Amino acid sequence: MTQALIELSDLGFNWPGHPPLLDIPAFRLEAGETLFLKGPSGSGKTTLLGLLGGVQKPGRGSIRLLGQELTDLGAGARDRFRVDHTGYIFQQFNLLPFLSVRENVELPCHFSKLRAERAKQRHGSVDQAAATLLAHLGLKDESILSRRADSLSIGQQQRVAAARALIGQPELVIADEPTSALDYDARENFIRLLFAECREAGSSLLFVSHDQSLAPLFDRHLSLAELNRAATSAEV
User: Fold this and answer.
1) Chain centre to alpha carbon of residue 41
2) Is 194 inside a domain boundary?
3) Tally of domains in the chain
4) Band (211; pLDDT cuts 50, 70, 90)
5) What is the pTM of this model?
6) pLDDT for the residue 1
7) What is the CATH classification number for the domain harbouring 126?
């Protein structure tokens, strides 16, 4: 069997003084795969994403990303590994409002030499990588690059957040409810653009949402309750 991009084994997590939140015997995400993960609020989705990013450590079990056991790394090493290999699209986008669009998109390359080098190799420069990604995601007017992030519409902010996640070709892109503010047609259009960019970069996509109508667009779709033995019967 080939090495998975993500491989979880006997993963367990609970907050101090609380019952188990996650109990996942096994899970794999393959390189280049798009996966839709569904779960209601409070089901542990955000905690699982924190574990995959190395923000938190599990109570037990194994988390391997690109063959690296994350639980073997210290906090600083996990942070460096995350910024090198993972791009995030957050529900609230988390753009820095006082920075320009270009500065927001290029932020990962300031923290990751690996992603900066990949951007330069693929596009000639980090600046050109940012402009190209934004154009591919539907923001083709170059004047937008100098605008402050807080001057953008919700749809524009979403695309800037996606470009920031994709710059430098991270192997994994995690999207946490990124389409919740859009209508269905806009959601589907955005997802298809995101798929195209992930395919071109060779990135896997883990897309977390409660909106089951989007699931058929993905290579594979799962409910967190299918993975998580700690889930209540109401979540299944």
Assistant:
1) 18
2) yes
3) 1
4) confident
5) 0.92
6) 57
7) 3.40.50.300
